Amino acid sequence: MANPAQKPANHSGAAVLAIGGMSLVLAVAVQLMGFTRRLDATLAGWMAGTGLEGQSRELPAMWPWAWTVLLVFGLAAGMLAARRDWRRTVLWISVLVLTLGWVPVLALAAYKPSVTMPLVALLWCGLWTMIYAKRHQQPGEAAE
Fold first, then answer.
1. Torsions phi, psi of 111, nearest 5?
2. If residue 23 lies in a helix (H) or strand (E), which one and from where to where?
3. Whether 103 contacts 43, CB under 8 Å
4. What is the pLDDT of residues 10-30, one digit of tens each?
5. Which of 110, 113, 66, 74 is nearest to 92 (CA)?
6. 111 pairs with which residues across the strands?
7. 3-state DSSP assignment of residue 11
8. Residue 92 CA from chain centroid, whole number
9. Which residues of the chain have pLDDT under 70?
10. Burial level of 12, CB count in 10 A (0-12/13-18/19+)?
11. Which of 50, 75, 98, 111 has its CA 20 to 30 A from that of 134?
12. In Å, what is the CA distance from 22 to each residue of 19, 25, 44, 73, 126?
């Protein structure tokens, strides 16, 4: 009889696809509901008050989506490959800070920042990857 306290086996590939896919679905839903426009407009207004001259251009729609798709699946895979929770947390925070780093870069390039949708997807991805890692046996962990 199996030990009820034993964690189930890790299926990293399926977990990465499921967590990444659901993070993208959430990002699409948030964008379709219009939440990203309001928050991005607020951020653009704040950046306009910094004194940068010129008219801001719209960011091509494919750029944030390409960034989000790459980082959501990469974050989930990286976090599940890490052995300890603190390493997973460092990866998660690093990706969030890297995404927030878009704001001044885009402002200097005269683009309106569009980071709300990627941030929502990455927050969701990191949260559920941490939960999955806590509840499943990870590589390098001894079976309990």
1. -115, 145
2. helix 12-33
3. yes
4. 677 889 999 999 999 999 999
5. 74
6. 57
7. coil
8. 8
9. 1-5, 7-10, 48-54, 138-144
10. middle
11. 98
12. 5, 5, 28, 11, 12
